[in-house]
Design goal:
Chain lengths: 266, 96
């Protein structure tokens, strides 16, 4: 690239298989970035390390998935894009993470409720992807499911502690659950991308995860003494590239270095 | 010592692989045993150090009194005959 040119954004493949993998990759990537924001700010040192461990697990999963999404796109005729190009050089509308993970990190209750929701979802995804028709994806899933299982347990234990803790912890965890719940239907519904993935054996239609996700969340919330919130008509649309107002800000921070110093490494 | 607002302290022991002993590697604060085990995993085994963890409340450990050091340990200084170095060992016995 000529140094006189501004680094241009790249366009990911529109192929449904690549999009299916990108949705998962970006969901891991953006939640990893959000959790990284806790570094140095968690309530206690030990939890600071636990949260950043989770962040690093998610970024590791994102790296493997982004690489695979780039390869799948190339097989379908798009230019081959690597993990760094996909992570740092796309425009906002080309990120396909669910809106849930881009919401600002909030307080500790908000973080652990969201982590429990996403870890439960990802654990179910990885369990199914272990049988993917794509051997590479199945291998990624086999490793990631162990990480997700721990994330689910760690976050879930916190939800129970806060729900069953002081008046303030209970009020905070209820508020978090209430504001996050309306973003969860996006994780549990289908569109054409899921239809392709289900029909080709690439991975589960996300709607197939709805019943087990709700069942596992119900057990957790019951243990925490929290009521399952009512369903809402609101539908977030991050996985189709239409994000909340928070997405641009997180991308600005994430992309700054690669935009300012193209190809920079350390 | 633990104040009412501070979580209790736990000592962490890590076994690096099956067959070896659990070794003390440090301490951490946690509200209960379950959290202590999870945080020990996150704090002390994140670089593949472990295959098993023990945690124990620090206030449950009984320690020797530092002022007893002279009485407890100094008398052993000149009793080299307690080391099994005065025997000829069979070749098959390694690492004594």
């Amino acid at each position: 690239m000529s140094p006189t040119l501004m680094p241009t954004s790249i366009q990911p493949s529109r192929d449904p298989a690549a999009q299916y993998v990108l949705r998962l990759a970006d969901t891991c990537l953006i939640l990893g970035q959000r959790l990284g924001e806790w570094c140095g700010h968690a309530p206690v040192l030990e939890e600071d390390i636990a949260l950043t461990n989770t962040a690093l697990d998610l970024i590791g999963q994102a790296r493997a998935l982004l690489t695979r999404a780039g390869e799948i796109g190339a097989q379908k005729g798009a230019p081959l894009l690597d993990e760094d190009q996909l992570a740092f050089l796309r425009e906002e509308r080309d990120y396909l993470n669910v809106t849930l993970v881009e919401l600002p990190r909030g307080d500790f209750a908000f973080t652990v409720v969201r982590n429990a929701m996403v870890a439960t979802f990802l654990k179910l995804v990885w369990q199914r992807l272990a049988e993917s028709s794509d051997a590479e994806l199945a291998a990624i899933a086999g490793k990631a499911v162990k990480e997700a299982r721990y994330h689910q347990q760690h976050a879930g234990d916190w939800v129970v502690r806060l729900g069953d803790g002081t008046a303030e912890s209970r009020q905070r965890v209820e508020a978090a659950l209430d504001s996050l719940w309306r973003y969860t239907p996006e994780l549990l519904e289908d569109d054409a991308v899921d239809e392709y993935a289900g029909a080709s054996g690439l991975g589960p239609r996300w709607s197939e995860l709805r019943a087990p996700w709700l069942a596992e969340m119900a057990v957790l919330l019951d243990e925490a003494g929290l009521a399952v919130p009512k369903d809402s008509a609101f539908r977030s649309t991050g996985k189709r590239g239409v994000h909340s107002e928070h997405m641009g800000h997180i991308l600005t921070e994430m992309q700054y270095l690669q935009r300012a110093y193209p190809g920079g490494t350390w | 010592m633990t104040t009412p607002n501070e979580w209790p302290l736990w000592e962490v022991f890590v076994r690096t692989k099956a067959g070896l002993d659990h070794k003390h590697c440090g301490s951490l604060h946690a509200t209960d045993a379950k959290m202590a085990i999870q945080l020990a995993r996150d704090v002390y085994t994140r670089r593949q150090e472990g295959s098993s963890l023990w945690v124990v409340r620090s206030d449950q450990i009984v320690a020797s009194d530092p002022s007893d050091k002279a009485m407890f340990f100094d008398p052993m200084e000149d009793k080299v005959y307690r080391h099994p170095t005065f025997y000829a060992l069979p070749e098959s016995v390694d690492h004594m």
